[in-house]
Design a protein that fits this description.
- This protein has helices at 26-40, 67-75, 79-84, 87-101, 107-119, 121-124, 134-146; strands spanning 151-152, 165-168, 187-193, 197-198, 214-220, 235-241, 245-247.
- With 251 residues, it is α+β, with helices and mostly antiparallel strands.
- It folds into two domains: 3-148, Nitrile hydratase, beta subunit (Cyclin A, domain 1); 152-247, SH3 type barrels.
- The two termini are 28 Å apart.
Length: 251
Amino acid sequence: MKLQHYLGGLENLDPVNFETQVFVEPWEQRIFGIHTAMMALSNHLGESLPDYDITQVPTEFKSFWTWGHLRMGAEGLQPFEYFRLRYYEKWLGGISGFFVEEGYITQEELDQRTAEILADEANAQAPLPSGGDAAIDEQVVKYLLEGDSPMRPLPAAPMFSVGDRVRVKNIVSADHTRLPGHIRGRVAEIVKVYDEAYTYFFKTTDGIGTPMPIYSIAIQATDIWEPSLADAKSVYYNDVFEVYLEYLEAG
């Protein structure tokens, strides 16, 4: 399990960044825009909700890209690099690596362009290319307005009910997970069963990727953190995929 998945259970992670600006540097807005356009042009949208006729959009971007891919790129960083880099620097690294892996650019081309910008600051302030395609712009705006819903009808009756006592599994994850490290192995109570299933946009090695029930679970705070660090009356809540839960064994 990667260190960055255990943030909720770690102490002394100072200094805490209380930055309130959404974008600190101008280039961060570009990275956000690139990521948004990639999601809006992702090839999986032909099977999404709402319906997008993505095959008719004249884009050269033919890949599968979601928030999950962005998170996976950040999680793939070496832990010390993960903590050293700023928020949008992680995005930049994940997106750049993806474009290299998908063959849109070579590592040599990326390194050369990076060196050029570092050598001449004026390169970094160059205006964005002009032009573009109105149909692509229309698709990106449609995606911003309508999104890509992960909610689906329940494929089967949920395994658990409100009031059930469960244990959060300690599943080994590889490239990507949606299970926080600090709740693994903890005993919890089901406090809500959501009416619809939730699908993750691609399959992961720890079991998500197909529509399944999700639950809100409650864990005593002192079961996660030391009693000296948590109020004995505090309760911690988390929404969890069904595959991450198991019945609490008797006794």
